[in-house]
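Recap from last week: sequence in, structure out.
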Amino acid sequence: MSQVRAIALDVDGVLTDGTFVWGPDGEEFKRFCYLDVMGISLAQRQGFRFALISGEDSPLVDRFAEKMGISAVYKGCKDKAGAVREFMRANDLDPCETCFMGDDVNDIPAMEAVGLAAAPHNAVGAVREMAHFITHKSGGNGAVRELVEHLMAAASLAIEAESLWAS
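Predicted C-alpha cells:
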C-alpha cells in the first residue's frame, strides 16, 4: 500500500451512495459526500493522482471532476480495466502504484488490473471477496476519505491541516 500514488474511482456506489433521483423534467441528481471531497483534496495536495471511471455517461461526473480538478475522466465506460490501464499508461504508473475502488461486479476487471483493489463496506459480495481493502464506511458516505487516509498513513504522509492549507 505504501507504493500507491494514484487512485481510480468508480462513481456510482463509491463516490455516491448509488442512488439517483429523477426530477419531474427528467433531470438527474446524485449526492456526493464532503468527507470524500476533502479526502481527495488532501491526497491531491500530497501528490496523489485521481481518475474517475463510470459506466454512466452523466454530466454530473464531469461537474464533480471539474470541482476536484480531476482531468482523467472515463464516462460511459464498458471496459473499466481498459480505462485503468490507459490511466496508468498516461501517468507512467505501474499496477503496484495504482488503486481502484469499486462496488459492483462490473468493477472486478478494473480491480484485477491494479495492485490495490478497494471496496466500500456496502459493495456486493463478489467485490468484497476480491478487495484487498474494505472500508468501514459505505459508498457516498466517506468511503473514499477512509481509503485516502489509509493510503496516506501507509505512505507515512501526515494529515496536518495547518501545513496543507497554509500554502
